[in-house]
Specification:
It contains eleven helices and 13 strands. It has two domains: 239 residues, TIM Barrel (Alpha-Beta Barrel), CATH 3.20.20.70; 63 residues, Alpha-Beta Plaits. The radius of gyration is 21 Å and the shape is globular. The two termini are 39 Å apart. The chain is an alpha/beta fold. A nine-stranded mixed β-sheet has the order 7-1-2-8-9-10-11-12-13. It binds iron/sulfur cluster (2 copies). One iron/sulfur cluster (SF4) binds next to α1.
Length: 316
Amino acid sequence: MQEKKGLVFDVQGYSVHDGPGCRSLVFLSGCPLRCEWCANPEGQVIKQQVMYQLKKCKYEEHNCRRCISACPYNAISESGDSEKPLLLDRTKCRECTTYDCTKACIHESLELSGEWMTVSELMAVIDRDRRFWGDGGGVTFTGGEPFMQKEFLTAVLKRCKEAFIHTAIETSAHVDTASFLKAFQYLDFAFTDLKHMDPEKHREGTGVNNKLILKNIAALAASDWPGILVIRIPIIEGYNDSDENITATAEFLNKIGLDIVNILPFHRMADSKYNQLGMSYKYAEHEETPDEIMKRVQKIFLDHEIGCFVGSNTPF
Ligand code: SF4
Ligand code: SF4
């Protein structure tokens, strides 16, 4: 029987802010949300995508045209603009399965966004990193939304538990409740995102309303899962930072008995990824969330007796 494969768009070692101790982060492709400020746009779909880094391209310097002749669909053409010499027709790339352009590009200017891996292949990478975790570390699954590849996720989680590896997840919780709760038998720690308490505002910013997310967070809080659940909130100035929204979030957490949040300031570090993918980025000009806002939000949570950690200043 063939082993299950999953699309993994990154594996990063030595993370110290995404769960207890030193950890490896596994980024699984696919997401049911489309947050306008998304920091990992290359992980939104379960499909390898071509990323084009202009600064590595040798079109001018070496008169390189290798990708143009390699593409069987004529999707790459010369623009005539020296600032942006190549035009990539991504409507044609959507049907592509060979990605011959990336194989032809010896300068790593064109690269694929992810790699299809079997459970064993991913476990070998996790195992390779394991010796660097030290005491109390482990592996954290993030994305994208890890539950978009739930069968692969569950298979890897199960293998981790069999190998006595501490497991964590960062999830939007936008997944059917049965699958969500079932996976927690293999999880020790979880970050669940919560972007807005108002269903319509949530839909405006992320493409989906928050009903399933709130239901799943409440269901996990009420379950007998013995792990630690931290609510993660990206604080986006002008979107979800109002006193009214943060108070509503705190009251919801009080009601279901959760008492730890990690608030993350918005940053623009994903800017170059949007360029590489040819995607527009609504937040390209948006300012990073100022410290005063983070402190105001933190105070509201603390006033509701909820432990509130800002950014990477966390004990986990
Ligand atoms: S991904 Fe495929 S269709 Fe798109 S440019 Fe590369 S080879 Fe051509
Ligand atoms: S093959 Fe690579 S380096 Fe050459 S023109 Fe294409 S993208 Fe640029």
